[in-house]
Amino acid sequence: MSKIWMAVFAAGILLLSGCSGDQAEIDETDHSNNEQQPEEVAQEQNDSEFIYPLTGISAEAEVNGRAVAVMINNHPLARQQSGLHKADIVYELLAEGEVTRFLAIYQSQKPAQIGPIRSARDYYIELAKGYDSLYVAHGNSPEAKKLMDSGYIDSLNGLYYDGTLFNRVSFRKAPHNSYISFENIEKGAQEQGYDMNKAPSPLMYLNEEEIEQLDGDEAANVKVSYFSRETFNSVYEYDAAQEKYKRYSNGEQTADYETDSPVLLDNIFIVETEHQIVDNAGRRNIDLMSGGRAYLLQKGTLREVNWENIDGKILPVADGEQVGLIPGKTWINVIPASVGLEDSVSYGS
């Protein structure tokens, strides 16, 4: 089946912290009402020669702008999050214990407020590096600190900007109350001399004819389990009217704190890979290089594929060829191979 590279003309986008840097004094100022609403990106395909590289959605002009990858807290006390619904791509991986965190990658949209921000881990840094992102976190593990301090990735760490670029809101308690505005991300990048103009390389997208030919098992409701804790399970419900997936955590729909706008997704990619506990704090090594089995959800169907690390990105592959994505937003769940796809994922109509 032929694939369409949608960037021919595009110019160039916790419960257990184990990290002492997550602890900081609370700024009692509530910044939640200061949001400036950016223009929404049109969610249609057309014949435009310009597209957003991480969504495949048409743009009105040449697309520039570096990707920004932000560590977002997924503790129950951090929900609902801010700005998550505007991310082009979200990775969900385990941190310590059975707690997941999000790496939200932004390029096509710039939410006014993002958070709560959480601390860095080395494997999230590797994923951010794959998109040549500016990496944003608040605190770090020892391994993540080495990578950031060495200049391996351009980064902004809330440990050094608490109360300046990063702000503490009053309606949540530390470590679930650190936020940053996109304006302050750009301000911090400018202060550090980071180049923010180059867009990331585009992903591969299906055209309308290829989308119509999609097949697989019917999967209008899909549950992804991380061990036995319902708190960190993800449920995806396909809305046929919108032709998008809604996401739920512990029975609550994932939506924006300020606007209540839901997270709506076009591709759900669930991959299994080896996880290893490496220290007494419960920190992990997660194999993001070897490839393996995966499920891909698109348009209410599920099919088994494989995943490969292609230039630092976790992408679907079938029969030795890369599988195209539906233009829109993508969520990637990374689950332990010790649990496995069959035991972690349940689905039906």
Automatic annotation (TrEMBL):
The keyword Hydrolase does not apply. The keyword Signal applies. Residues 1-24 form the signal peptide. It comes from the Bacteria. Keywords: Signal. Residues 24-45 are annotated as: Disordered. Residues 54-194, 223-332 form the DUF3048 domain. It holds the Pfam family DUF3048_C. InterPro entries: DUF3048_C (IPR035328), DUF3048_N (IPR021416), YerB-like_sf (IPR023158). This is DUF3048 domain-containing protein. It comes from Bacillus mesophilum.
